[in-house]
Amino acid sequence: MSRSAYDDVDVNKIARDAMCRYGFDPDFSALVKQQVKAVREDLQDAAGVDGVRDLRGLLWSSIDNADSLDLDQIEYCERGPRQEILIKVAIADVDLFVPKGSPVDQRAANNGTSVYTGVETFPMLPDRLSTDISSLCPGGERMAVVIEFAVLSNGSIRQGDIYRAMVINKVKLVYEEVGAWLEARGPAPEAFAHIPGLEEQVRLQDEAAERLKTFRMDQGALDLESLETKAIKEDGVVVALVLPQENRAQYVIENFMIAANRTVMDRLSKAGVMVIQRVVRIPKDWPGIMKVAAEFHEALPLEPSAKALSVFLLKRKAADPLRFPDLSLTIVKLMGPGEYEMLEPGKPPIGHFGLAISDYTHATAPNRRYVDVIIQRLIKAVIFGRSCPYTRKELVEHAAWCTDRDKASKKVERFMRKVEAALILRGRVGEEFEGIVTGASEKGTYVRLTEPPVEGRVVQSGVRMSVGQKVNVRLTDINPYEGHIDLVPVGAVRSGFPRPPVRKTRRPRYS
């Protein structure tokens, strides 16, 4: 096909069709819009109300993507006794504006999550809420749920109090700018010159995050990296795909949110209430992970061990950082997805294998994940001394549905990356590419090209392939409307994960 064959593809329409195909509602009903329009901003004018602390004077800040407006959390820290660093994480009080059972709540529950397709974002909540009155935008007085914990000198945490407070985000910082500064690759963010104490505040946050990271890795947390591409558009046309590199600033937020979520889980468990936990079970294909390790002449124990796997991954990252994301993708596929599970009071949690922790939930992103709204209601019920706002049946059903929506959102996002990838490859049918096998099962064999970093399906092969093997393939066809990239192998299949020159890589977000 010629390059012009797909020049007029409407990627936004494809994204909306994909949303519908996977059971999402891409629009807000008239009833939802009516409720949102009637929401009173003065609901959060609660300074001085019993039980609501006034923390507007603290130097709160956020670090996020440059284009993000749905700010769920802000952070503040200070030095404490015995080399401790005391952390406060303020979470947007979304429940204040979205009553349980209301039209907005029902619509949020149905979609379960915001979906980020690259070409268009489909928010869980209408913009007036998620990017305005329930967002912790700079300069506005906001009601929040504040989670406190202390980072000890060895990197462990001591859970603290959780309460409601009035806060003001003093400044929104950007990941790339703060990360470049922390890594000595760029100048200090301009805001440092205008806000006294901000530079010291961010450095202290970074110090706390490094402690948390070191401790988590010692406990067996897995340091994995993703290869999720971002589409670059010009005049509505996808012209390139890039692999955003995560940086030290993002790792600050990742570690703070993990600690905050653990603190919420601890508080709810001690209160003896039902809770929805975020779990990653014992890997579904540990023998497959052992086989991958054996390719590098490394032996993992017969019984699944996060610590042993973590040690193996750290060695591979040090030895071969350029190919480490490929290895990460292989391990992620063999481990299986994260899930939500209702936990009865007093019962042992399932745990999160990837984080090497047992007490974990999702509570820090209520503007974009419905489970976090549920957890916020549970924690507020504990704060107010009220009964649980959900029945056991409701929590079981919500956990299952949110797991389904989480998986479906990833399918939409993955499909749209394939659509974008197909558009990038228009005009290149017949060319040969290097790639690595990312999936090999009865459902099909998939190969990710080295450049551009896109994944396609092997449609003809008399060669047995295994995840992690390196191959040469020829592009035989594309179909952006279906997200199809068809490949055939060329020559012999080789061993995977070769050792190329070393370059610096970045860290992933938590999940």
What does this structure look like?
With 511 residues, the protein is α+β, with helices and mostly antiparallel strands. The protein has a domain at 3-279 and 353-419. It has helices spanning 11-21, 30-38, 103-111, 127-133, 175-182, 198-219, 248-271, 286-295, 306-319, 324-335, 370-384, 392-424; strands at residues 52-54, 60-64, 73-79, 85-92, 115-116, 121-122, 141-151, 157-174, 230-234, 237-242, 275-279, 339-343, 432-441, 444-449, 455-458, 470-479, 484-494. The strands form 5 sheets. Strands 1, 2, 3, 4, 7 and 8 form a 6-stranded mixed beta sheet that branches. Helix 7 (248-271) crosses helix 11. The protein is globular. Mean pLDDT is 89; it is low at 497-510.
Tell me the layout of helices and strands.
Layout: H1 11-21, H2 30-38, E1 52-54, E2 60-64, E3 73-79, E4 85-92, H3 103-111, E5 115-116, E6 121-122, H4 127-133, E7 141-151, E8 157-174, H5 175-182, H6 198-219, E9 230-234, E10 237-242, H7 248-271, E11 275-279, H8 286-295, H9 306-319, H10 324-335, E12 339-343, H11 370-384, H12 392-424, E13 432-441, E14 444-449, E15 455-458, E16 470-479, E17 484-494
Parallel strand pairs: 1-8, 2-8, 15-17
Antiparallel strand pairs: 3-4, 4-7, 5-6, 7-8, 9-10, 11-12, 13-14, 13-16, 14-15, 16-17
Features:
511 residues, 34% helix, alpha+beta, disordered C terminus, 6-stranded mixed β-sheet
Mean pLDDT: 89
Radius of gyration: 23 Å
SSE run = HHEEEEHEEHEEHHEEHEHHHEHHEEEEE
Runs in which pLDDT lies below 50 for 5 or more consecutive residues are: 497-510
Q: SS-based structural class?
A: alpha+beta
The fraction of residues assigned to DSSP E strands is 15-25%
Estimated helix fraction: 25-40%
Number of H- or I-type helical stretches? 12
Largest sheet, described in full? Answer: 6 strands, mixed
How far is the first residue's CA from the last residue's CA? 40 Å
Report the principal-axis shape. globular
Number of strands: 17
